[in-house]
Structures are given as structure tokens and as C-alpha cells.
Amino acid sequence: ATAGAGGLDPARVLMDILSAEQLRENLEYYASGAHVAGTNTTQADHTRSHFERQGIGTETVEYYPWLNYPVAQRVALFNASTGAVSFEAGLQEARVPGDPASDDPHNLPAFHGHSADGNVTGRLVYANYGTGSDFRALGEAGVSVKGAIVLMRYGVVPCAYKVHAAELAGAHGALVYSDPIDDGYGKGRVYPAGPWRPASSLQRDSVLRLDVYPGDPLTPGYPSTRDAPRLDPRDAASLNRIPSLPISHMDALPLLVALQGHGVEAADISRGWVGGLTSKGVRYWTGPSALAVNLLNQVAYRTVPIQNVIGRIKGWEDPEQVVVIGNHRDAWSAGASDPSSGSAVLLELARALGELGRLGWRPRRTIILASWDAGEYGLAGSTEWVEENIDWLRADGVAYVNVGAAVEGSSFRATASPALKDLLYAAAKQVAYPHSNGTVYDAWLRDSVAAGARGRRPAVQPLGPASDTMAFAVHAGVSAVDFGFAGSGGARHSNFDSIQRVAAFVDPDMQLHLAAARLWGQVAVRLADDPVLRLSPTRYAADLKRYIRQFERKMALLLRPPPKGPGLATERLGHLRAAQHQLEVSARIVEDSTRHLRLVYGEDCQMAGRRRHRTCLALRASINDRVSKLERHFIDPDGAPGREWHKHVLVAPDFGAASGYRLFPALADALDAGDALQLREREKYIAGMVHEAAWFLREA
Amino acid sequence: ATAGAGGLDPARVLMDILSAEQLRENLEYYASGAHVAGTNTTQADHTRSHFERQGIGTETVEYYPWLNYPVAQRVALFNASTGAVSFEAGLQEARVPGDPASDDPHNLPAFHGHSADGNVTGRLVYANYGTGSDFRALGEAGVSVKGAIVLMRYGVVPCAYKVHAAELAGAHGALVYSDPIDDGYGKGRVYPAGPWRPASSLQRDSVLRLDVYPGDPLTPGYPSTRDAPRLDPRDAASLNRIPSLPISHMDALPLLVALQGHGVEAADISRGWVGGLTSKGVRYWTGPSALAVNLLNQVAYRTVPIQNVIGRIKGWEDPEQVVVIGNHRDAWSAGASDPSSGSAVLLELARALGELGRLGWRPRRTIILASWDAGEYGLAGSTEWVEENIDWLRADGVAYVNVGAAVEGSSFRATASPALKDLLYAAAKQVAYPHSNGTVYDAWLRDSVAAGARGRRPAVQPLGPASDTMAFAVHAGVSAVDFGFAGSGGARHSNFDSIQRVAAFVDPDMQLHLAAARLWGQVAVRLADDPVLRLSPTRYAADLKRYIRQFERKMALLLRPPPKGPGLATERLGHLRAAQHQLEVSARIVEDSTRHLRLVYGEDCQMAGRRRHRTCLALRASINDRVSKLERHFIDPDGAPGREWHKHVLVAPDFGAASGYRLFPALADALDAGDALQLREREKYIAGMVHEAAWFLREA
Ligand SMILES: [Ca+2]
Ligand SMILES: [Ca+2]
Ligand SMILES: [Zn+2]
Ligand SMILES: [Zn+2]
Ligand SMILES: [Zn+2]
Ligand SMILES: [Zn+2]
Q: Which tens digit of pLDDT belongs to each residue from A168-189?
């Protein structure tokens, strides 16, 4: 507990306990070999027994999602008339002498999680990043994708979106490669000489459509327990239907060469369509190619048991209230950065919390430590657990704190519910940034400003799609935060995401891991133990105002009316503006109550007087209830029209946008459809929810 | 503060902060050179700036005691008729190759602190350990000491007592050597081959008569500030009047040889008179010798400034209440064990308390960290400070915790006020004993039983003479405890008490230092921060009962009456027995109140109810007041008859007894004098004080 006058601050003590040496040991354990979800239980058992050794009651919670594994794969260029094969793609990553992770017999070939089984042949078309506008540009250039195999490069939007966009455009197969201009020698020296992605490197990925729903594709909205009813896989809307594979830029090069002179030169569409293989003499053309491409993606789908390891430290004051901290454990290969850096931090945090326990500490609220399985398979572990515990989380969830890849680089980045931003800022100010005189906050602000962010504080965007925060935030309405030290690619989802690479180029002395652990620990302990929760409705109201203005700018842009016409753009989101104002006023009332409590009673409610003590306890409980449940008021139980699993009305992960998030998703859909009436109707509906939230905040 | 439900235990967190590496650094600093009191201020300044770096407000408090330093010294055997010198003692310790501490240019020659200046000549007499009974035995054997130079060996009673006993017997000078059977090759391999005292080793010591009063000999009972009035040194009753020197057994050997055949063979007095130089062909005889001995002890007395470094961590709840933890800093040479092991621990404790502060903690009561100067000169630093702060300490002193030589060996030993024994046991159960599966308590109990102690708990004797506890316990009536890991001599007060010796033979991995620091930290933090103080009146009453029985046995032994006669021995200490019973009953009442408070309110007094909260706070304050002031009720402001500085009526350090303590000193004096009337009268007086104490405990 955060003690009263003279008491030790558990968050600071925890920071002292955390050890870089332990983190190194943990990292070496988790990244010691490939550990794809569903292939063994060793790491789950190790995690569980480590938690238990720390005195943390732990259970392994199994679910049974529908997962696929690679069986056979081929990408070949051939002459459809003669049948002569001119190129066979390797589809394997090279071995790097001295890095055993690159030589692990369990390493996978080229593979996309939840990809469609298939053996397809067609002409090749290059579609840049495979965004909606890229496919529109192809159409405008007169290039048909129908029946084609589409070659796209990683970046801008998630892989699943690219494959789906190709499918929508009528393609029969999709290949996705890492272009060196985005992630390879165009950025710097490649592994093992440097951190960047080498020529043979494959970026495996999930192609599950999280925009429909994450987790097991056969049990949308409910847990995939052993005996749960299942959809027919043909009815699972989150599955893409065309086969896909990732390829290396080494394998992409002959394909791009085969496109040269066919269709439209990419540079004629836009400069932004030209990748980095120009340095190898390639000129980017759209195709379709004269030669045909055969894409074989034979995969085996199975119902596979996965293991979430769930540790529980019971709260002493409000044991039903829960703060969840977690990361996924499974990896596409060794996964030193993604996710083992986060797993190492979680394990060390368990040790530190265990040590705090031995030092006499118990949190006020219950802490759940979650090591999720099958995160790489569309966030299956966290999604199924949230679906199973949805009633509890809606009633008593305080927050979810995710650290996926804790250390992929040295630039701090965070996405979060607005309610959690202030707490994150405060925590980042408490943690020293390695090899500097400043804090993580200082370094973060510097990087954020350098990246073009305005404002006095570092930028924190709304939660994006690629994190186990999704089910908590979007489905359950629990405020969530995701953070870590980011790089910009390099080895993600390849065999080269190895301990050797981390030790050589990412975090040789484990000090970034230590900083991540300290930050995670700070945030977790404050959430679990602050007498008065530091979730901020004021910040939420302020961000909502920014959201409204941002959406209004988008309306103005997309629906620019004929001069003097009665278009939408002249209209503002009037109802939402009014509701936001109410929320702002209510938030200020909560803030005043909190200040009052601090000044008059003290957060501890320790004073010599019966009525005062009771008043203080009641006021504190009321404030905590209001600030922790604010987020729940933005959950529409019916979900977004057409995407019912996604229930948050203010912001959603966006799979087709580079930003990764979508403000007022239902309004954005109406805007995309140009349906002004629906937009107005939905605005009123959302404004009504915000009004409700404002009233809820005011109920003292 | 010891936090409430769920709070971190500061004592345990402190134990985690303490570091063996830091302790090693500290030890290496303090033991890096000779640092005799009054010769420089470097270590005081270092200690102060270290405290200040930890955020601890610190001042250097100077006093100006009367100290002496060696100028010239000689011990020579010569023929008084011819003047032919047959032996000149070296009076220097040998250099040990590879141990720079043995080669420090600041090392002292043979020297006794506060010894009398003089150049005397006389025949030599051997007086064994120089106890009262040893001198009586010489008298009974017809050996006169008048005008002689007395040769005695270290052990059994303090050096000051030996010199005084020699003076009383009419001797003109005193030589004190370390016999190898007590402290040298008779025990094991000698330094540098082993830990034991080698042939050239001198044991320097203080010869100030602490039984009269400790501290500055010229300001008995008041602080020796710069402008304080001073006694004429000729009136200072704590000074011995005959010159004395310590010598090595190498130098003692020719002297013993000169005694052979003269007087009585020591073995004829008692087997216990024969030392260990028999293995070198020596037969121990009493003398007087035929040859004469010249003893020159030229010393320079000066009023010298000494520096106590006093750090202060202010309490938040009861800032006036004070717990003092301290050790002396000055040494006779490098003093790696005595006192630098304790100084190293104190410094590391300051760092850990500073770190606790940075972690948000403040103690309920004020903690004083005291690095005393001139401890080797009759406890001058602590004595003068207590004399200056006597009013504050009598009003608000909670306890004094001393760690002098923290690590001289591996056997835990402690002396304490009965009130502190239970706390010490509890703390020893919390600290792991190095290289074992058990705690310090386990090892201590094992050693204690092996040494013949009965009882279910390790033996804790009353406080003895050679510790800075003296002024606190005996003069101010503040409960005190002194502990450490003891050996049995070896290098005490010699140049060989060096870092090299500690690293090779005493505590190579600093784990005993770490255990001492943890134990000291536990005790200090509990005393300063427990909501309810764990001083135990029950234990005090039980020990008083043992004291009474022990004294009655002594009465029976010394005053064995003629059969059926009306001697003292048939009488019991009836008044004291009755008063002790009252004390026991009162102590049980306090214990019940404490149990009641714990069960009904909780130590934190945190409950939702005005009257209950106030009641609890009042009850707690009352309990704390009663248990911490119990000891003060055994202080007689008039002091013991003839030794007014010594004011504790139940127990006093005893300088003439091997046990080191004296029960009911005023009664013991009467018993020694055979004065039954006085004994009865004094018993009634002391019983009255115990009655008062019992009534005080009962006032709720
Ligand atoms: Ca499901
Ligand atoms: Ca004095
Ligand atoms: Zn990940
Ligand atoms: Zn990943
Ligand atoms: Zn000492
Ligand atoms: Zn000493």
C-alpha cells in the first residue's frame, strides 16, 4: 500500500529491486529458441513456476483457437505457354554464422498466420503498400488486379489489410516483401554487420482481419473453451480468403524484374511507389507481368490448445478491482525483441512484486500478471481471456498495461487511452533514461518534437491495432496503455530478432530493458495502489475536444461542398461539441473533489474524527469509481455497425490508415459512405453517450 | 513509517538495500591508516560529508578532553649494582611484508591512553592477571609489591583495573603483556600465517578508571566544552598515578626469565598463574627479581579537540523522541576490526537510511547517527555528548544502540538492558547467518549453549565496561544494547588489526559485516518506527528476579554464617523481592494493554470512528512513554556512594570482575565491606525505587 505520513513508496522501492542482470537472464531464457504458439508448453510452465516461486498464485488458462501451421510453400515465375520456370523463390532466411537463433531447426519458412490454404497461379501485379488508395491508383491507371498475384511491400497498413484489399480487388494471391528502402540496407548496415534487415529476411505476420474481430476466428465474442460452439471456418469473417506469403527482398527482386516494361511505370503513378531496389538496377513497374507466378501456400489448420499464464496478487482494500499487466509470450522465431524483451520484463516485474510482498507490501487492488499465448495469431490469448472475463472486467477493470516488444530500439513510444496519459507522463518522469542525465520523459519529449509533434508534452496516440490492449480497450472498455522502446523495423518477425542482435545493436547493457521494467512497474503499482486513482477525466475531455476538431477537419476535406452549397462541411459536430463541454465541466468537478480530498483529508483518509474519516473514505471510493468507469461509458453494447465486436464509439484501431486509429468509427464509416443523414443520426447517438458519461462523472 | 495494511516494512527494505560491496569500500576507507583520536579531522569530515550526501542533516560536535600521547618509552633490565643493562625491550611491533598497515609511519609505539608520565625503577614482580585476588594471593605468599614494577598479563579484568590494583599494592610501575596462552600461538597460527597475535604484538589500551567516571578526566559529569571549568589533573580521580606500558610476549620473555628462581614459583600459588611461555622454556616465578627494571613512560598531555559527527533524521510523529545509534571512529592503529568494522557499518546504514528517505520513508521518532571520537580514550566522545545532552536524553531518550567492533570474529555476542533483549532476539531471527541455512539467532543460540549458557534463549549479559553504551545506560538511564561478531583477541589494539587480516581470516566476503549491518538496521528502524515500542518491562521484571537470586547466592557464599548464627546469609532481599513482584504485575498490565491495542485497534490506530481513534492514539502514546522511561526509574540522581557518576542502582559495569558487570552495585559494595546494616538500608532504598517504577508502569 502507498503508506501515509512517512511511509515507503512501493513504486520507488520496486524500481530499486529491478535488476538488469535478471532481465538479461530472463531474455536469454525466452529467446533461447523458436516458440511459436501452440507448439509446446515449456515456456508457459517456466513462467508459471517463476511466478509461483515469487509467492504469486498462478494458473495456466487454456483456450482452443483455430490456428494454422505451414506445410509447403512455393513462389515461382514461369512461362505459362512453355511451362519453363525462370525463378524459384528460396522462402527461407539465411544462416548467420555465430548466431544460433538463425540456425534453429524449429524456425519457420515463409508463412502468414491465419493465411488461406491455396495453390494459385496468375500474372503478377505490383501494388506498392497495398493500401486502399494504392489499389484505387492502380484502377485509375487502368491496371487490373483481377485473377492476379499481387506483390506488395510491408508498411503503412497492417499485412492483413493488404491481403484483404488485394482480395477485394479480385486478386487470387498476395505476396508481401520488405523493401530495403523501408526496412533494410536503405536504412543502414544490415545484420550481422548492423541492425537492419538483410536480403534473405522474411517478415512473418498475421493476416487475420482484426478489424472484423481479433482472437480465435471461430468464436467471435465468446471464449474458445474446449467445448464452446464453433463457427464453420467458411463463415469466419475475420479470415482472408486468398493465400498469401511473405518474401524477402532477395526473392522479390526477380519478380520486380519480371514486371519491368509491363503495365505502367510505378514512378508515373507517384514517386512514393518506387522502392529501394533501384540501387540493384530495378525499375518498379505495375505489371501485369508477361510471366505467370505460382503461389503455393499449403497450411494445416487445427484447433490447438494455447496457454495463458495468469498470476494474481490479491488486493487488500478492493480485491475485486483489478489492474491487468501483460504481454504475449509466443514468437514467430526466437523473438528476442518481439516479444521476449517484454516477457523478460514481465518476469522480472513478477520477481520484484514478489520481493515487495516479502517486504510486507500488498496492493490495494488486485494485480493480474498475464503472459498471453498466441499474440502473433491475431491476439488470441488476450482476446479469449477478455471474452471469458468480460463481466468482471466491465464491473471492476481499472486498467490494462501492455508492454509487447519492450525494447526494439531506443525511442520511447506509447499509445493510450486519454485517461492514462497523465499517469504515463508522471511515471516517465520518474525513470532515468539510460546513458543520459535526463529521464525517459525528457528523451521521449525530445524524440516526439523531433518527429514533428506539437504541444508541450510528448505525443501519445490513441491505441492502434497491433497490441493485446485491443480486447481490453475496444471490447471491454477498460482504459489501456501500450508502450516500449521502438526502433523502426530491422528484424521484426524474422529469425534475426535474436539475442545476439539485441546484445550487439539494441541494448547491450540491458539498461533500456531496465528502464522499461521501471516504467511498467511504476505504472502498475500506481494503478494498483494509489489511494486515489490517477486516471484523468480532464485529459479525456481535452482529447475528445481534439478528436472532434480533427474529425471536423476531415469532414471539411472529404465533403468540401460546392461553393455556397449546403454541404456537410459547413456543419460542425454540434451535438458532440455540446456533450464534450458537459464532460469537461464534469471532469473539472471530479478534479475539484480530488483536490479537496487531498487538501482537507489527505489521500490516506487518516484523521482523528469519525465523520471525517467516513466522509473521506466514501469520497475516495466515489472518485475512484467514477474515473475508472468513465471509459466504460464509451462502450456501445451493440458495437459499431457492421463490426459488432468493436464497441468503443470514440476511437477504434484502424487497419486501413497509416495512423493506426480511427476517430468516431461509426461516423467515419458514414463519412466514407458519404451518408450525411446517417452521420447526423450517429453523431446524436454518440453525443448522447458522452452526455451520459458526463452525468455519471457528476454523481458524487 | 511502518505502514498499515499492505504497507512496506521499512526494516526489511533496509536490509535489502545494504550492500557487502559498499561495506568493503567503507572498511577500506576507515582502515586505510592509523587514526588516533585528536590527530586529524579527515575521517570526521569524510563521515560528515557522506551523511550529508545521504540527505542527513549533520553537524560536527567538538569537545576538548585531556588526552596524552607517547613521547619516549623504555623498559630495560639492569644490574642495579653495576648498572649493566642485560635487556632493552623493543616496544615496537614488527613489520609484516605485504601488510602496509604494519608499516604505517603514524603507528604508535607501546602506549597506554591516559597513562601517568613517569620514569621509575624497581625490582620486577609477576602478578598474573592483576586482579584483586591475584594481589591478595601475592600477599599471602609473602611477596611484596611495594616499590616494584609489576608485570601482568592481559585478560580477565580491564587494563586500567590492573594498573590501579598495582598502584594500590604499592607498586611504582606496571607492565602488561599478552601471554600466548591467552592471545597468541597458544590459540593457533599467528599473523600473517593465521589470525592470532604474533610475538612482537602490543595491545595498546586505555588505563583510565571508568569505574570512577569515563570520558574527559577533568570534567566529570559535565561536557568538556572549550570554556568549561576544569579540574586540576592532580584532582582527577579517574587517572592512575603510576606509569604503565603494554609489552609484547617477545619482550616479556626476558623479564620472566629474570624472575626465575626468585620469590615463589607461580605454579605453587595456582596452576592458573602459569602462562604459555613455558613452551619457550620459561618457568613462571613471582619475583621480586634480583635485577632491576627501568620503566620510562614519557607522555605529553594536552587539551585536544575531538570530533563527534552527529547526523539527525527527524521523526515525523514524535520528533523529540530519540533513538541514538553509534560507534567510535578513532583507533589505536588502522583498527580494521576495532572500530572500523563498526564505522563501515554505520556509514552503510546512513546510506541505506538515506535511500529509505528517497523512497519516501520517514521514521516516527528522530534517529541520531553518532560517530564518536576518542572512544579508545575512555569513551570520551560519547560520554561528553551524553553529559551535554543529559536533560534531553532523560526526557526523551528511547534507546542507544552501539556497534563497536562489529566484526572481530564470527560468534555473535550481545550485552543489553533487559528491556531490549526481546527486540534483539526478534531482529536476530530476521537476519540470515552467513554461509548457513539459519539465522543469526540460530548461530547465536548454538554458540551460547556451547559456551555453557542455560535457558531457551541465547545469553545476553548486562552491559559491560568497554562500550559507548556506558554513559547512556549508567548515567542517563537510557536503555542500551551493544553487539557484534566477536572473536577472542588476536589483534585487538595492535597494528595487525588490518584490512589484510580481516580479508584473510575474519570476513573475506564481508558477509558478517552485512549481517551486522542488517541487525543494527533492524533494531534501529524498529526502535525509531514501530507504532508500539517493543521495549519489554516483562523481560525487565524477569531479569530483576534473576538478579535478586544471583545476589542472594553471592550473599550466602560470602557471608556464610556460623551454623545457626543470625548471619546475613539466612536473610533474603525481602524488600527487593516484594518490589520485583510489583514490577512483574505492572509489566503484565502493560503487556495486556499492548495486546489489547493490537487486537482491538491495530497498531496503526486506523479505524473508522472518532472516539476509538483518539483512544487508541492516547493508549499507544501512554504505552510508549511507560516502556521507554522504565529504565530511567532505576537511575538514582545521587549516584552510587563513592562513584556518583554511576547512577544505575540495579546493575553497573564492574571493572574488577571477569563478568564485567556488578549487580546492585551499592549493595555489592556493602557486602564487600561486610556492612550488614548498610546493606539492609540500601536494599530498602533500591526497593523503594523499584516500587516507584512499578507504579509508574501502571499509570495508564
Ligand atoms: Ca473468441
Ligand atoms: Ca565531562
Ligand atoms: Zn509482439
Ligand atoms: Zn509480433
Ligand atoms: Zn572499540
Ligand atoms: Zn578499542
A: 999 999 999 999 999 999 999 9
Whether the per-residue pLDDT at B129 is higher than 80: the answer is yes
Q: pTM above the 0.90 mark?
A: no
Cα(B330)–Cα(B345) distance, integer angstroms: 15
User: Is residue A586 within 8 Å of residue A537, measured between CB atoms?
Assistant: yes
In whole angstroms, what is the distance from residue B299 CA to residue B111 CA? Answer: 9
- Single-letter code of the amino acid located at B334: A
Q: Residue window 281-320, chain A: list those with CB within 8 Å of chain B.
A: 316-317
User: Residue B487 pLDDT more than 90?
Assistant: no
What pLDDT sits at residue B241?
Answer: 97
Give me the percent of chain A exceeding a pLDDT of 90: 87
- Taking residue A525's Cβ as centre, other Cβ atoms within 10 Å add up to 28
* ipTM confidence score: 0.76
Query: What is the identity of the amino acid at A494?
Result: S
Instruction: Give the CB-side neighbour count of residue A76, counting CA atoms within 13 A.
Output: 15
CA distance B61 to B42: 15
CA B42 distance to own-chain centroid: 25
Is residue B609 very low, low, confident or very high in pLDDT (cuts 50, 70, 90)? Answer: low
| B37 and A CB contact within 8 Å | no
pLDDT of residue B569: 47
8 Å CB contact between B380 and B238 = no
Percent residues over pLDDT 70 in chain A: 97
The model's pLDDT over A235-256, given as tens digits with 9 standing for 90+, comes to 999 999 999 999 999 999 999 9
Instruction: State the Cα–Cα distance between residues A428 and A459, nearest whole angstrom.
Output: 13
SS3 content of chain A, % helix, strand, coil (to 5): 40, 20, 40
Residue A3: per-residue pLDDT: 43
Provide the CA A612 distance to its chain's centre, in angstroms: 45
**B17 interfacial to chain A (CB closer than 8 Å):** yes
Q: Confirm if B666 and B555 have CB atoms less than 8 A apart.
A: no
Q: Quote the minimal CA–CA distance from B525 to chain A in Å.
A: 13
Give the confidence band of A572 by pLDDT, cuts at 50, 70, 90.
Answer: confident
CB contact under 8 A, A608 and B609: no
Higher pLDDT, B566 or A181: A181
- In B, residues 526-565, which contact A (CB 8 Å cutoff)? 529
| B521 at interface of A, judged by CB pairs closer than 8 A | no
> Three-state DSSP class for B370?
strand
Mutation target for B interface from A316, A317, A359: give the one with most B CBs within 10 A: A359
- What the block records as the C-alpha cell of B484 is 557484534
User: Rounded CA gap, B512 and B344, in Å?
Assistant: 12
C-alpha A559/C-alpha A550 separation (Å) is: 14
* B260 membership: H or E segment, kind and range: none
pLDDT bucket at B2, cuts 50 / 70 / 90 = very low
Burial B602-627 (b: 16+ CB within 10 A, else e): eebbbeeebeebebbeebbeebbbbb
Over residues B372-423, the pLDDT tens digits come to 999 999 999 999 999 999 999 999 999 999 998 899 999 999 999 999 999 9
Q: Quote the CA–CA distance of B687 and B649 in Å, as a whole number.
A: 10
Identity of residue A247? I
Q: Are the beta carbons of B582 and B541 closer than 8 angstroms?
A: no
- Beta-ladder partners of A244: A174
Is A157 part of the contact surface with chain B (CB cutoff 8 Å)?
Answer: no
Cα–Cα distance measured from residue A373 to residue A400, given in angstroms and rounded to the nearest whole number: 17
Q: Could you give the angle at the alpha carbon of B403 between the alpha carbons of B594 and B450, nearest 5°? A: 85
Paired sense of beta strands B173-177 and A651-653, if any: unpaired
Q: DSSP of A512-551, one letter per residue?
A: HHHHHHHHHHHHHHHHHH-SS----HHHHHHHHHHHHHHH
Handedness of CA A458, A464, A467, A472 (dihedral sign): positive
